[in-house]
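Table S2 (continued). Query chain:
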Amino acid sequence: MIHKIKALNDNGNGLSVRAIAKELSISRNTVKKYLRMNEEQIGLGLANRDRPKQLDRYFTYIKHLLETFPELSAVKVMRKLKQKYDNPDIAERTLRRYVAKVRQEVCVAQPRYYEPVLDMVPGQQCQVDPGELRNVMIGGQPQTVYFVVFVLSFSRLMHLSYSLKPINTSDFIRMHDAAFRYFGGQPEELVYDQTKLVVINEKYRELTLNQRMAEYATRAGFAIRACEGYDPESKGKVEAGVKYVKHNALYGESFRDTDELTDYLNHWLDHVANVRIHGTTGQLPMALYDAQERAKMRPYFALKGHADQRMIRKADKTGLISYQSNKYSVPMVWQRQQVMIRPEEGELVILSPESGEEIARHKLNQGTGQILKNKHHYRDISIPVATLEQQVLDQLGDRYGTAICALLKAGAPKIYRDQLNGLLQVVKRLGVPNEQQLQRLCQRPHLTTTQMESLLEAMQVSQASTTNNTKVSTGALKRYHHLTQVGGQHALH
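Corresponding output:
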């Protein structure tokens, strides 16, 4: 580098300092420094490349940390140095470079994690993800710490709960309760991956939710949004948060007992995680939350006994549900279906048990024996024609295709496109239904693609049995009888 600088300058007859710096991508001060040096000074500098560094006095300790905990971050190394050596005067940038050099000597690598950044609205979303770290020393014994991280998408304010046994639904709900208490409110929606704690099954983007978790979400008043399978980037903020908890909070630590672990994590949240300058927002999560997001959060009312109480009603054939000796209407597609209810400031809110979305709202009647109807619940909804709908009409005919499209859209409007795609796949696999089968499908007040697939399979088995005069398996007939009952719906587990 020195020889290049000297050659480009050519004793003042070549390039300028600014041009040399631009050519070699170095600072002008560096160029000036080497141009001022004579041959003797340059020779001494080259001969003494291994001159002492400020951090060499800590080399043994830093090397020990990285050998013992290879994935320890430079930030965590800094914190441990300050604890051990009474706040040494070290610049963070200097330490990062020194740690990178020591890593090469102890042959460790730490791949960088990248996350997508989305601009969010205050109080709108919280991303949730479970994680675990093995071999954490607690009471002198290596144990696995299971934890759940909650990260508010706007402010990046974080909450953390843990367990020393695999997390079940009751634990998961308890951890939500603790997070909302810590935040002092709740967002409008929570985003999850397809953990069995939330999503039991997905097919054609139809989600079968964990029933107890869906009930808790409905009663607490937040919507559940599940990512598509194998799509961690759609909740990258909390994915990065899980890594942060593993490597910055837990990795390289040991605890006398669980009380010390609890105190440590509480202190870490309040004095490290939520008061650091966030790499994406450039602000302290707690300060940003207090300034712009706290006022946008919905109020959270602790649910006593939420794990056991059930707020589920089943609509009758006329689309009415009972609550406190009165009856309230639901939309036609929910006739003979289970729904969830939530009293709310003089109103009764009726929600989907699968998604937690509101499907109806009534003013609560203080009397008894009354029927409260919304006339719009008994009207058919016209469906606009799109490309996928036209493909369905081409396969099933205008009459039946239009009716089935209407049923699919009414039953699952948010995943309507996925439903149509699934329908076309079912028709391709099972063949175009005959007129009798289409008539039976169109007689149903509620239909999804998975229900249609099961019904067609069962009807084909039944018709084949009648035609060939063969014996049908008891299991298939029972399935057919169950599915052809008006108002069949997925069970939530």
